[in-house]
């Protein structure tokens, strides 16, 4: 198992969380906070550890990754629970869930019996469900469960306001893995988004790129269009074209993020922006677009 930057800080995290009721952890993307910190907490607490993820895909992939590193099947000691899918069992102590699942659990189990620690991952996304869950957890801790531990983790969060909300709790900051990055911008074009992606792919391949390519697109429809537009280029270059979005079966999601014998072209929505680290990616094509739900009164 490869060493990740957060590994060196785990003793400090365990010590601080063991002494106090809360902790805020800031760690850059790829540092290992999602997959290394929660399983380390099992040695500190005798009960269950819940890890809140902002997306179903993140919960699935994180649980599968941790189970693989611990050498146990998913659904045994490590499992996940998302809408319409519960891969846990009687022996599950580390459970990755979405915020909606935790909110539903509060209705049937308002004291979270058996839960020793709740980890709120990727809290910088700051949507309503995450804030609502943090408020419920803080109230539960103050009124009925003072022994409940709360750990807020984020890559880019301004930690001070959250630490103040949690009673001026400690903040642990970790480093990441530095990579040299070269950025180039494509000029505005009347071409379709799929054709622009194909053009960017062609330029990368012409430069002799070695490694996998990750493409960010706004939705599944755009992913299918880009698959068709890039098919010929990918075939000539020996690239395996793989989609990645939340509606895919878990097996296809695993194919996109797992190592493969040939180079990959991964066409993804913004689910791969956080909580998911895809090894082997050496270039990113970002459309700059994302589909975001909003209210239009």
Describe this entry's structure for a reader.
- The strands form two sheets. An eight-stranded mixed β-sheet has the order 4-3-5-2-6-7-1-8, sandwiched between helices. It has a four-stranded parallel β-sheet with strand order 10-11-9-12, with helices on both faces.
- Helix 4 packs parallel to helix 5 and helix 7 packs parallel to helix 8.
- About 40% of the residues are buried.
- Helix content is about 35%, strand content about 20%.
- The N and C termini lie far apart (about 50 Å).
- The mean pLDDT is about 90.
- The protein is an alpha/beta fold and about 300 residues long.
- It has two domains: about 170 residues, P-loop containing nucleotide triphosphate hydrolases (Rossmann fold), CATH 3.40.50; about 90 residues, Rossmann fold, CATH 3.40.50.300.
- The chain is elongated.
- It contains nine helices and twelve strands.
Keyword list:
about 300 residues; alpha/beta; Rossmann fold; 8-stranded mixed β-sheet; 4-stranded parallel β-sheet; 12 strands; about 20% strand
């Amino acid at each position: 198992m490869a060493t990740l930057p957060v590994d060196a800080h785990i003793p400090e995290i365990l010590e601080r969380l063991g002494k106090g009721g809360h902790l805020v952890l800031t760690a850059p993307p790829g540092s290992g906070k999602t997959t290394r910190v929660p399983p380390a907490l099992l040695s500190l607490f005798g009960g269950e550890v819940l890890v809140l993820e902002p997306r179903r895909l993140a919960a699935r992939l994180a649980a599968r990754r941790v189970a693989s590193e611990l050498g146990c099947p998913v659904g045994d000691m490590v499992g996940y629970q998302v809408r319409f899918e519960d891969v846990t069992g009687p022996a599950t102590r580390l459970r990755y869930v979405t915020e909606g699942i935790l909110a539903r659990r509060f209705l049937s189990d308002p004291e979270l019996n058996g839960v020793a620690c709740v980890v709120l991952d990727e809290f910088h996304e700051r949507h309503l469900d995450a804030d609502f869950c943090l408020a419920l957890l803080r109230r539960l801790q103050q009124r009925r469960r003072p022994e409940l531990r709360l750990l807020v983790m984020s890559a880019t969060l301004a930690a001070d306001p959250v630490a103040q909300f949690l009673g001026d709790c400690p903040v642990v900051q970790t480093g990441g893995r530095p990579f040299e990055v070269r950025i180039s911008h494509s000029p505005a074009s009347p071409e379709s988004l799929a054709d622009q992606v194909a053009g960017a792919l062609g330029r990368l391949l012409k430069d002799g790129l070695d490694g996998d390519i990750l493409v960010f697109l706004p939705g599944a429809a755009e992913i299918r269009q880009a698959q068709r537009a890039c098919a010929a280029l990918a075939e000539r270059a020996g690239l395996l074209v793989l989609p990645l979005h939340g509606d895919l079966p878990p097996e296809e999601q695993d194919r996109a993020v797992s190592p493969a014998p040939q180079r990959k072209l991964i066409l993804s929505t913004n689910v791969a922006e956080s909580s998911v680290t895809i090894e082997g990616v050496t270039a990113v094509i970002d459309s700059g677009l994302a589909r975001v739900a909003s209210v239009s009164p």
